[in-house]
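Tutorial handout. Part one gives the primary structure; part two gives the three-dimensional structure as tokens.
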Amino acid sequence: MCNPRRVTITATRELAENWEREITRTVNRRGTARGEARVVQDLALTQGRPVLALLPRVLEAGLDDWTREGETWRHAVEGGYLRYTPADHRLEIVAVAEDRVEVTADARQRLQGQVRGRLEAEGLGRYYDDGWGGHTEDKAERQAEEDAQQKLDRAARERIQSEGDRAEAEADAQLTARAEAQAEEALAARREAERVRLEEEAAARLDRVGVRARQVVNRLLGAAYRQAILDHGAQRGATVVRDDDAGDVIEIELMMN
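Part two.
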């Protein structure tokens, strides 16, 4: 036995192969569906002008947890909120029902093309002059041919894979945008479908929300009445002897000078 000899064979192949690939982009969207039920009251029908005139002043002073939103004032209560608009004395009591919604949208596209080109690969085989172990020159040539063909097969697969990957990368942005648009449309439809159910749910709890909201309104009106009494006393030079606000009961004592 001596050092092995090498046999190299260079093989070529003309590549002209069609390929096809289907790609999918999936987009998930989550959001909140919301339903509301409301009752509207005109405070001008039940309250005098002096009290109505003082409501903005009381609100500006920072009563409770009222927050300003443009020309209106809002106060959250369990299960909803109330909104007061000083300009027209409109009071809204709103019950809210919410639920999470989730949708999934798939966008698919079929890609296809053809890979053309010339491939070349070198195969290698080994043998011994004395044919040791069955490694003859003829067998080495066959091994070199098989090695070259395997390399050509691998190169062809890689070329086809590369071409498909390139085409998929080019289509990715547009296909993803399509999936996103479909998901947004599906989410809007799901929200709208849920809104009807949630509005019924909100309507069922409107009475309970109304009780909580009217407690807040009564505190607001009480603060306005208190300010009206204090202003009236001040106009007549009265001295405030007692001014206690225990929440549900306001006690004011004035001494006229």
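Part three, for discussion. The chain is about 45% helix and 40% strand. Residues 78 and 160 are 62 Å apart (CA to CA).
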